Amino acid sequence: MLKTYKKLKLVNKTRKKTQTIINVNGSKNKIQIGGENLAIIAGPCAVESEKQLDKIAKELSKLGVKILRGGAYKPRTSPYDFQGLEEKGLKILKKVATKYDMTTVTEIMDPRDVKLVSSYTDILQIGARNMQNFPLLKEVGHTKKTVILKRGMGSTIEEFLSAAEYILAEGNPNVILCERGIRTFEDSARNTLSLATIPTVKQLSHLPIIVDPSHGTGEIDLIIPMSKAGIACGADGLMIEVHTDPRHALSDGEQSLLPKEFAKLMKEIAPIVEAVNRKF
Ligand code: PEP
Ligand code: MN
Questions:
Q1: Which of 5, 98, 165, 178 is the most exposed place for a label (fewest CB within 10 A)?
Q2: Ligand number nearest to the C-alpha of 213
Q3: What's the 150 CA to ligand 1 centre distance in angstroms?
Q4: How many whole angstroms separate alpha carbon 21 and alpha carbon 207?
Q5: For residues 215 and 240, is the Cβ–Cβ distance under 8 A?
Q6: Can you list the alpha helix ranges (DSSP code H) found in 155-240?
Q7: For atom 10 of ligand 1, which residue has the closest CA?
Q8: Does residue 280 belong to any structural domain of this protein?
């Protein structure tokens, strides 16, 4: 028997029995996450230039992707690595997404940026490193923006759900959880994708949960198998890093799929999506 975490009043399934379907506010595409459609979110780790993002978005939209990701504020381990284009990156993301009629996701790190970032993007992403940035959780909780909350790499499921509870407790119910791998003793790949988290969260909470096999493994060769596995165990969507020139990407090139590899992923997941009675 799984624990029930009674303190988690709002995210808990004991309070709200039906699965939450998030209607992404502000997007013309009428995107729903958590319903019968499997959400596919793809794009580069970081917005590097208009030319770079345009090339990637063009390929992705040809493959039917409706949600474009791209970071403008990057939480990098080293202060000497590319930190993101900030507002210039947000402008590029919005411009390119408008051109291809796509909904956008971008990361936010600082509570002071909520207004600014929200004015450019449809979905706010809170990354693994900020899962317990409580002022940030509270600030996004004061909006009605859709939020993708990624699991901290050293967080338990209770801590993960408690972080979501912070956002709901401030009045924003539009939270999508994202399993993106945790740190374990295993060092053959960047992270260990905790697939059991998906059915566990499904049993405990009514919130949608997507899976990010790009950060979850950090290995190109593991992304397709883990995408299939994630869908098979109930994930409501995938977040995948794609780049047209991964070798020269300014961040996470080593885990970014080429558009043709991403096309292969889309083809290979199709029978699994059908098997779990979902559409995409
Ligand atoms: C990202 O999505 O590029 C990212 C930094 O993810 P995470 O917070 O999961 O490491
Ligand atoms: Mn990344």
A1: 98
A2: 1
A3: 8
A4: 8
A5: no
A6: 157-169, 197-204, 213-217, 220-232
A7: 128
A8: no
Q: What is the CATH number of the domain that holds 231?
A: 3.20.20.70
Does residue 113 fall inside a structural domain?
A: yes
Instruction: Check residue 26 and give its pLDDT.
Output: 64
Q: Which atom of ligand 1 is nearest to the CA of 251?
A: 3
Which burial class, exposed, middle or buried, applies to 208 when counting CB atoms under 10 A from its CB (0-12, 13-18, 19+)?
buried
Ligand 1 center to 128 CA (angstroms): 6
93 belongs to a structural domain:
no
Atom 1, ligand 1: residue with shortest CA distance: 45
Q: What is the structure's pLDDT at 5? A: 83
Q: Is 116 exposed, middle or buried (0-12, 13-18, 19+ CB in 10 A)?
A: middle
275 CA to middle of ligand 2, Å? 30
The alpha carbon of 279 and the centre of ligand 2 are apart by a number of angstroms equal to: 26
Q: Give the CA angle between residues 112, 114, 115 to the nearest 5°.
A: 100
82 found inside a domain: no
Range of the domain at 162: 23-74+98-274
Q: Say how many domains are in the chain.
A: 1
Cβ neighbours of residue 87 closer than 8 Å, sequence gap 6 or more: 72, 116, 120
pLDDT at position 29 is: 75
Between the alpha carbon of residue 272 and those of residues 41, 65, 189, 226, 265, the distances in Å are 17, 18, 25, 12, 11
